[in-house]
UniProtKB/TrEMBL annotation:
Protein name as annotated: DUF917 domain-containing protein
Cleaved signal peptide residues: none
Organism: Kribbella antiqua
InterPro entries the UniProt entry points to: S-Me-THD-like_C, S-Me-THD_C_sf, S-Me-THD_N, S-Me-THD_N_sf
Domain S-Me-THD N-terminal, chain residue ranges per copy: 8-163
Domain S-Me-THD-like C-terminal: 166-350
One Pfam family named in its UniProt record: S-Me-THD_C
Length: 358
């Protein structure tokens, strides 16, 4: 892609929700906000990671908080651009590019809004290749890039800047502020140069999102299997097909936490799958045994339409297909596993790769 228009947004939002592994916010809400911004300000220029100048000033922007809250508590029209402007003013630099820090439903479209409002190009890449629940959980952390200074802005106009001693402290302090701001806020963080973005970003994420969204749509139009189209596109595998029979979900400490149970149908008949999530799906278990874990992607799709289903949208009766797909290989380094592996989230498990036969 070289430009992003409103015509690509449905595919972008759908594909971002696939990569978001249940988290990253509601894709429909993000799409509507981005469509409005593009109607007012025009198309956004897309720049590949490889084409970034070494001295570019890249400012990622995202929504932080519990996806369950984001569904009802939308950002104000100017909140997103204000977060970028607040950080730029604090660091004393003029931003040259906007970027996504994670691939997720709303967090792949929030940067589109900022880029449109500010008239800046948007980087075709992100800091994860998927979504994770805590702000230190990005590949730039593994590259030694600091999350702060970071700005945080709520819909009322309150704004602040954190400058912390570590990325983990940035998460801790910003999470507390986000809870006080109503469990959702806009943040701009991980200010970096073009050279740093080339080293630490997953390239081509926005293009991948659009391709995924289009693959689902194309499969439906041709009466093919949209779930199989996603499996093929991501090089993943189908774990389970069934009906959601129970969802236990709660919003605590700024996260949507819980689990969902899927009773097997068709080829999965007689098996029971349980998904464990904290904003994103982190562990998938079949009949009590883990079959896929973070850092690889665990994705829930509507079995018929192929539409991705976020953790806040999972409901009793949903007919779903659960997939696993490989994450960026850097997440499987020892430092990556320490940052986002199952044990970090409290599961007494070694990582199980998406393509591992259990």
């Amino acid at each position: 892609m070289t430009t992003l228009t409103a015509a690509e947004l449905p595919a972008l939002a759908r594909g971002a929700a696939v990569l978001g592994t249940g988290g990253g916010g509601d894709p429909h809400i993000g799409r509507l906000l981005a469509e409005q911004a593009l109607r007012v300000h025009g198309a956004v220029e897309i720049v590949s990671v490889d084409d970034l100048p070494d001295d570019a000033c890249v400012l990622p922007v995202a929504m932080m908080g519990a996806p369950t809250v984001m569904v009802e508590k939308l950002p104000s029209a100017d909140q997103i651009a204000i977060a970028v402007q607040t950080l730029a003013k604090y660091v004393g630099k003029t931003p040259t590019h906007i970027a996504c820090i994670e691939a997720g439903g709303v967090n792949s479209t929030v940067p589109v809004i900022a880029a449109a409002q500010l008239g800046l190009p948007l980087v075709d890449g992100d800091g994860m290749g998927r979504a994770f629940p805590e702000l230190q959980m990005v590949l730039p952390t593994l590259s030694g890039i600091e999350a702060t200074p970071m700005s945080i802005v709520d819909e009322k106009g309150n704004r602040g800047v954190f400058d912390t001693i570590s990325n983990q402290w940035a998460e801790r302090l910003a999470r507390s502020a986000t809870v006080d701001m109503g469990c959702s806020a806009i943040v701009s963080l991980y200010a970096m140069t073009g050279a740093e973005a080339r080293e630490s970003f997953v390239p081509g994420t926005l293009s991948q999102c659009v391709a995924l969204g289009q693959a689902i749509d194309d499969a439906r139009r041709s009466l093919a299997d949209p779930v199989a189209a996603v499996v093929d596109r991501l090089g993943g595998r189908l774990l389970h097909v069934g009906k959601v029979v129970d969802v236990q979900r709660r919003t605590t400490t700024g996260f949507a936490r819980g689990d969902a149970t899927v009773d097997g149908l068709d080829e999965s008949l007689g098996r029971l799958l349980v998904l464990r999530f904290q904003n994103e799906h982190l562990v998938a278990e079949i009949d009590g045994a883990a079959v896929a874990t973070t850092p690889d992607l665990i994705i829930v799709l509507d079995s018929e339409s192929g539409e991705p289903i976020t953790t806040e949208a999972l409901r009793y009766g949903h007919r779903v297909s659960v997939l696993a797909a490989p994450a960026d290989e850097r997440w499987h380094s020892p430092a990556g596993i320490d940052l986002v592996g199952p044990r970090y989230f409290g599961y007494d498990l070694d990582p199980i790769r998406a393509l591992e036969v259990v």
